[in-house]
User: What shape does this take?
Amino acid sequence: MSLAASLDRFVRSVDRMPEAKRPKLAPPRPPAEVRAALDGPLFREFSSEARDEIAAWFSAHDGQTDFASPRPGENRILLSLAGALDTAQRIEALSPIPPSRVIRDLGPYVPLLESHGGDNVLYRARSRSLVIWYHDDADSGAEVAPSLQAWLDETSQLIADALPELERQADREQRLRASRWVETEPFAAVKLAAKRAALEKYLAALPVGAALMRIRNDLIRPHLNVRLFVKRDRISWLVASGPDKACALDELSTLEEATPNDRVVDDLCDPRHAARWEQGAVARRKA
Assistant: This one.
């Protein structure tokens, strides 16, 4: 099977996913625009074979317009061509552990997928393989797939195998969305205790439905600008993320699994997650 055939199979596989779980693929870029981008500095050291593969990739789709992963069980999304160019520039310029420094013999590359946490799957031009780069771990470079075509074929098969479960998940989410999370107490700025014992005591005193919102301007992971922590009961919280509060509340409506207190405290105490905090209250209401 050719790369073009694998791309076509992948797009058709995505189209068969239930709507609630299906990533919204952006229309392909015109071939002339793709080729113009490939003449840019990022691709200067790409071989003609590598350029052809990237041209085929973005001529089949231009990333996606939502945060649903095309690969069941993962949270990696497809970057657009513009997003790939921007991400390559940002992670090299802003990350303390950029790919070129921590992945041995990486050579020229372009990011093609990004996880919700800010990690990236990179297309390695020399080997024409896919490798992982972790935004917060120097132990990067493990192979994700030996080729673009291998990743596409494996993903198409994973989608086919997962369709019955995806249908069940979509039905469950539809039932959950019959009620929505809304603000019952406006959010206002709050300063959280820095020491763990004091923070644990503070969280324990909050009533069920209390919500903490972490807000930051994350240039590398804008889809995580807002993170909501909602107290579900005495021992657990619901945790949702999004580029803004509305999106985080929307994600909250689909959640069933809660996060234990100790993990929430770990997150709130992590110095890497320094941000502005607000506190309010939310509750479920019929849509």
The mean pLDDT is 91. The first strand starts at residue 76 and ends at 78.
